[in-house]
Design brief:
- This protein is of the alpha/beta class.
- Helix content is about 50%, strand content about 20%.
- The chain is built from 17 helices and 18 strands.
- The chain has a 7-stranded antiparallel beta sheet with strand order 10-9-13-7-8-12-11. It has a 5-stranded parallel beta sheet with strand order 16-15-14-17-18, with helices on both faces.
- Strand 7 and strand 8 form a beta hairpin.
- Helix 2 runs parallel beside helix 6, helix 7 (about 190-215) runs antiparallel to helix 9 (about 225-255) and helix 9 packs antiparallel against helix 11 (about 270-285).
- The chain is globular, with a radius of gyration of 28 Å.
- Keywords: Membrane, Transmembrane, Transmembrane helix.
Length: about 500
């Protein structure tokens, strides 16, 4: 039987119409979220019928392509890796141009400028305002644009590929630069060339430490150590870079018979370094100690409320109680005054996922936490590129999704799989999900076990005719859903871990 029905005083005839219809006289047809039956309640007094129709279960289509092509296209050749490869290819072309134009004898100053340019690009793609600007530009595309364009623009959150690609290229360029200045010192053993050489080796040593610590396997296993290495080695490299820049300018000034000031002003290195340093200072200059008001949801989760500023949807913040050693990024949820509807702060949902989060859950009293930098757009902001979406979350992944649901910018269906939703996260969070999608599928894993999450996601895509799927979950489930959708031709997006 067709799920779309027209009702006229009890008569039922198939029609081609929207999923919710008003009958010619008094009937109403609405789709339900579950079951495959039709329930009819007829009022004898009013001679009308209320019929609830549930869409039939959609058969999960087969995956497109061979198993090998699926893995190559959707796993190994990810957008992140493509961007990384593109950045590296551009640098390789520039290097070949240098070799051709200098007949195999590149100038150390030009090589140093290439290293500085890549370092600037690397830092820019970690600077909050710049990243937000990139997001704003990419989500400008209207829904009238073809889906094949919009689904590619939505991958802007892979910008980490630019950061790591440019950073790795900077290390390679600087390694080449260090080789050249070593050769120059052998040919010209002066004090200033020795100072230039020593500072170059310090910089390259710090770069290698950063690059090694950033390897995905080491980063996952020793995340706190990675943060410390990345931060302190980066600061040391930046200071050494300034010392090296001045030492290098001193060498050039002697060779040009000019002043150091003249050389610095005419050096691209100097200006690249000023911009790089400014980006670093901009983030840390906004380090603040703010009061947080905890709302304990359960022994597994808490909601931390901040009142120092309002926060629009689709932003995240970095929080810490030890600002020099570790930071934790969270998506924010606008806090609204019930009476006026005015945003008067924001909150983040924290679930037990490690020592730091467990400690926060165990502190129900008012206290202070550090917040650094400007609020930053994230993955879910790209949902604005689509006319209809399906939002999938597991456990505390619903926290970041609450910001999207609050924004109410895109029609959506919601699938949330978690244990005891009301007991773990409270009726308020469950209510917010229900308000955003009255037919939300909230799957209690304690009662029903773990769902076939790919099948359930596809069912909502089928029912709502969604253009894309967004998932916030752990790495394993995220990869499973994204791969399961993409190999069936459905755009799907999930967080990038260790980017």
């Amino acid at each position: 039987m067709s799920p779309d029905l027209d009702i006229d005083h009890g008569a039922i005839t198939p029609v081609r119409a929207p999923s919710t219809l008003q009958g010619a006289s008094s009937g109403t047809v609405t789709p339900s979220t579950r079951a495959g039956s039709i329930r009819s309640s007829v009022s004898k007094e009013k001679d009308n019928a209320v019929i609830e129709v549930t869409p039939e279960r959609a058969a999960l289509p087969g995956q497109l392509g061979s198993e090998l092509s699926q893995k190559i296209r959707h796993k190994y050749a990810s957008s992140y890796r493509k961007i990384f490869g593109t950045i590296f290819t551009i640098n390789l072309v520039v290097f070949l141009v240098f070799l051709i134009t200098t007949r195999g004898n590149p100038n150390s100053r030009e090589i140093g400028s290439a290293a500085s340019a890549n370092l600037l690009v690397c830092i820019l793609f970690r600077q909050e305002e710049f990243v937000n600007l990139v997001y704003e530009i990419f989500v400008l595309a209207p829904h009238s644009w073809p889906l094949f364009i919009r689904k590619r623009l939505a991958k802007v959150f892979h910008y980490g590929g630019v950061h790591s690609g440019a950073g790795t290229a900077a290390v390679v360029w600087y390694l080449l630069y260090t080789i050249l200045v070593t050769k120059e010192y052998i040919d010209d053993r002066q004090v200033d060339t020795l100072v230039n050489l020593i500072t170059s080796y310090i910089v390259i040593a710090m770069f290698i430490v950063i690059l090694t610590a950033a390897h995905p396997d080491l980063r996952r296993k020793y995340h706190d150590h990675f943060e410390a290495f990345h931060r302190f080695a980066g600061w040391t490299a930046l200071l050494a870079f300034w010392a090296h820049n001045i030492a290098s300018a001193n060498v050039t000034a002697r060779q040009w018979h000019a002043t150091i000031g003249y050389v610095l002003i005419h050096s691209p290195n100097f200006w690249f370094l000023i911009l790089t340093t400014s980006c670093t200072i901009a983030s840390w200059s906004r380090l603040r100690h703010h009061t947080v008001y905890p709302e304990k949801l359960s022994d597994h989760a808490t909601r931390l409320h901040f009142k120092y500023r309002g926060m629009n949807p689709f932003y995240g913040v970095k929080i810490s109680d030890k600002p020099l050693t570790e930071w934790h990024a969270f998506a924010t949820i606008p806090d609204v005054e019930p009476e006026s509807g005015k945003i008067n702060g924001f909150s983040v949902v924290v679930s037990n996922a490690g020592d730091w989060t467990k400690k926060q859950i165990g502190k129900p009293h008012e206290r202070k936490l550090w917040v650094r930098g400007a609020p930053l757009h994230g993955l879910l902001y790209t949902s604005k590129l689509f006319a209809r979406i399906v939002v999938v979350a597991t456990g505390s992944g619903i926290g970041p999704c609450l910001s999207l649901l609050f924004a109410d910018a895109t029609p959506r269906r919601v699938l949330w799989s978690t244990r005891d939703p009301e007991k773990t996260y409270g009726p308020k969070v469950v209510g917010e999900v229900r308000r955003a999608d009255p037919k939300a599928v909230i799957w209690n894993t304690n009662e029903k076990g773990y769902p076939d999450i790919v099948g359930e996601t596809y069912q909502l895509v089928h029912e709502s005719n969604a253009e894309a799927v967004f998932i916030i979950s752990n790495p394993k489930v995220t990869e499973k859903v994204v791969f399961g959708m993409q190999t069936r031709g459905i755009p799907a997006y999930g967080a990038i871990f260790d980017s």
